[in-house]
Design brief:
The complex is a heterodimer of chains A (251) and B (114).
Chain A (H helix, E strand, L loop, with lengths): L9 H48 L4 H48 L6 H12 L11 H47 L4 H50 L12
Helix pairs in contact in A: 1-2, 1-5, 2-3, 4-5
Chain B lengths: L18 H11 L5 E2 H8 L3 H13 L3 E6 L4 E6 L1 H18 L3 H12 L1
Antiparallel strand pairs in B: 1-3, 2-3
Classes of the chains: A mainly alpha (251), B alpha+beta (114).
């Protein structure tokens, strides 16, 4: 009995091999993007609130508590603003995730997958700026994304520095005095040391997440640049009646 | 038999797609089985004029072929071998960029230095 896969022509098998290869890399990047989109809201601000609450619960003087309250209020105010901007991207990613699952399911039932290109462009919508989506493909689109990436890098650097200042304030203002008083009073050091570790881990995680995201966007940027070149070459070749119509991208 | 497929582009405004993006999506939609124009319109959310222009280009370029079924009263489109090659080139373009390893090395170096 001839299986579905065996009945495929060589170019169809080539397509299938490419699809499987793309699916593997897409699954990895999708998981990361899902985590990244909400990381500023949940992974950064909520643990920060808990760390500060923990310090406050350890018993601070009234002046220190009011400063702690200010630090708590800042992320509480910022988080909904970030949520508003990330909500749309998250919605797109959720739909893309459902599409990805459907593609994988279709591969399980049959040996083919459709909708992969749609998924790829949908992910690109998440990465590129909202005003960068227009119906005219050009190098400007790539330039827009490059500019967006540069601006976002500056924003995130400012954000990380600001957070670093907040963390430093927290460490110098609360944790070190608590540590000193714990040593002097002969109390256990576990709680302040754990809090210190959490703070450092969160800050390092933020840097790592941002840097990995930046790499991913740069890859998408190069991909899209290549894609536009591919489309333009395809259009040029196929619009020219003397060409061989092989559909290949520029070498 | 037409295989099951996800609804391409039904969740975003198709007018925001570039023509190259639309071409790839149309080629992929018709690669495993013939599709009618109304099916493509319904699933892509493209406007009639836009899809007609895209189909016209893809047909003229030999990337799609129109298969007429007058007895059924429908006209279906199927991706040609040339179209499959163009689609494969697109897929290769995607994998080529995602398989780059040197960026990861730079990332690790940056993290160590910072």
């Amino acid at each position: 009995m001839v299986t579905e896969l065996e009945s495929r022509t060589p170019d169809e098998l080539d397509l299938l091999a490419n699809q499987r290869s793309i699916l593997r890399v897409m699954r990895r990047s999708h998981r990361f993007l899902m985590a990244y989109v909400f990381s500023p809201v949940f992974a950064i601000y909520i643990p920060m609130i808990w760390v500060i609450l923990l310090v406050a619960m350890m018993g601070l003087p009234p002046g220190g508590l009011s400063i702690a309250m200010i630090i708590i209020i800042i992320p509480v105010v910022i988080a909904p603003l970030i949520y508003k901007f990330t909500k749309e991207k998250f919605g797109t990613l959720r739909q893309a995730g459902a599409a990805l699952k459907e593609i994988e399911d279709s591969l399980g039932e049959k040996d083919i997958a459709t909708g992969l290109a749609s998924y790829i462009f949908l992910i690109f919508d998440v990465l590129r700026p909202a005003d960068g989506r227009d119906a005219t493909p050009s190098e400007n689109e790539v330039e827009k994304l490059r500019r967006h990436l540069a601006n976002l890098t500056k924003t995130v650097i400012v954000e990380v520095i600001s957070q670093g200042v907040l963390y430093a304030f927290l460490i110098i203002g609360f944790l070190i005095p608590e540590l000193v008083s714990a040593i002097q009073g002969g109390r256990p050091l576990l709680v302040p040391l754990s809090a210190l570790t959490i703070i450092l881990v969160i800050l390092a995680a933020r840097w790592f997440t941002f840097f990995y995201w930046r790499l991913l966007v740069r890859r998408w940027l190069r991909f899209y640049q290549g894609f536009i070149a591919w489309g333009q070459e395809l259009e040029r070749k196929l619009s020219n009646p003397t060409n061989n119509h092989d559909g290949r991208p520029p070498s | 038999m037409i295989p099951p497929t996800i609804h391409l582009r039904e969740w975003t405004a198709s007018s925001r797609r570039t023509k190259y993006e639309r071409w790839v999506e149309l080629l992929e939609a018709c690669v495993w089985g013939p599709r009618t124009q109304s099916w493509l319109m319904r699933h892509s959310g493209l406007k009639t004029q836009m899809i007609k222009e895209d189909l016209q280009f893809l047909l003229g370029a030999g990337l799609l072929v129109q298969v007429d079924e007058p007895e059924a009263g429908v006209y279906v489109f199927k991706t040609t071998e040339k179209g499959r090659e163009a689609l494969a080139q697109f897929y290769r373009l995607v994998t080529q960029f995602f398989r780059e390893k040197h960026d990861s090395k730079h990332a690790v170096l940056f993290l160590i230095m910072s």
